[in-house]
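Consider today's protein:

***
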Amino acid sequence: MENILDNVENPPLFLVEERVKTFKNWPFSDKDKCNVRNMAEAGFYSVATGDVDADAAKCFLCGKELDGWESCDDPWAEHKSHAAKCAFVQLGKREDELLLSEFLSVIKQYMINDKKRVAEFAKELIDERAKRAKQFNRHLGRK
């Protein structure tokens, strides 16, 4: 299993315990429905950068980012209502309930999504460099 995960940008985020660790200042307690454990089991990890966005969370697989959580929110239900096509949501199982084939399908989808994100980022960089080159050429009087 380790070799498969070598090509993944953030392999620890596949594991619920690693997602739990990202919730440093989660605003809700373990007694609330919207607690750290339930968030992590529903595929979320914290992307908070401070107190203002302390409840910002993102799915490790589909990348859906949500904030504005309330203590009574059900993380699975919210994930499903905002990202019904997420492969993790469609499985509807916690990590410890996944069959190996299901876990591998999640990894495969993550890798596909990751490659798309990398390609989009590369395209943006290339487009920006091309724009700067055109501006530079115009500045030099070239066409």
